[in-house]
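Q: What would this chain look like folded?
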Amino acid sequence: MGMYRILRNNIKTLLDSLTSLQEVHDHPTFVFEGYPAAFIAPVSSPNEFKTTNENQRIYTFHAWVFVQYDVGTAEAAYNSLMDCMDDIINKIDHEEDPSDATRTMATNIPAGYTLLAVMAAPGEIVPDEENKILAGQVTVRCKTLVDLTLLS
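A: My prediction, written as C-alpha cells:
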C-alpha cells in the first residue's frame, strides 16, 4: 500500500475514535446515515527536492465535516460543526510528537519514509441552504522525509 493511502487510513482511524462524529468515510460521499459525519479527501501538496538521496513530501488532506440543521437549529448546528472541527484539530495535534513511535499517524509507515510532523488547521464553513447542511473543512498536512535510496 502506498504512503498516500496509509496516511489517509491513519487519519480515518483517528477520526473514527472521536465520539463527536457519528460516521467517517475514507472517500468523498454525501450519503450519511447520521450526523455529524465526515469524509477525507487528498488535495494537492507542495514537495521539495532536498538532495539526490532525499525528498521532502507534504501529504495534504481535507477532512470535510457535515452537520444537518433546520431553520430553528442553524446556530446550534454552526456551534456543533465548529466543535467537531476543533475535536479533529486537537486529535491531530496529539499526533505531533515525532519521537512517539506508537502514535496512530506513524502506523504502517513503510521503510524509506519518516513522518516528521502532522499539522491541522480549520478552514472554511460552507452552508448548503437547499439541503440544510453545513460543511466545514479541516486541512491535515503530513510532512515526511523520503530516503530515495530505500524506495523500491
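The chain has two helices and six strands.
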